[in-house]
Amino acid sequence: MGYSKLFVHFLLTILILGISLFSWSLPTQAASIDPFIRRYFEVSQPVEIPVDGKGNTRQFSGDDLTQGKALFEQNCVNCHVGGVTLQYPSLSLSLEALKGATPSRDNLNNLVAYFRNPVSYDGTDYNYWCREVSENWMSTDEAEKMAAYLLRAAAKVPYWGVQQNQQTPSF
Asked: Do residues 148 and 64 touch, judged by C-beta distance below 8 A?
């Protein structure tokens, strides 16, 4: 009898330990996704980001977009707070503005191409305000994650690319 009680306690201990380890691993995965990304980007599953103007897409996870956000904050946020372009407030990072550029910057390939060779909004001249993001500085994978972050923010974040004084209060 003593051994059977000991065996039951042993099994219960293993079961509790297993459940605890499993439950501890879940918040760790969820915690790796930035709270801003979780709140606004709707990333319970990987999201589709347009790759080109032909309807092709690529999936990006919440972790990918979190990495893209970190890259944006490290390299671009000084001039593009909340998607507003401080030097040219009328040319923001809103989806409408990205679509209107020549070439359009509303897909992954064109936005990464812009990072590599920043040109003016109409595509006629080099953009001296934006720094060229060379492959030595940021890998293609990193540039794509940052572009995916920008495109998802432009599509999902309220007031992304809108100047503070342009917002309409919702009282």
From this structure: yes
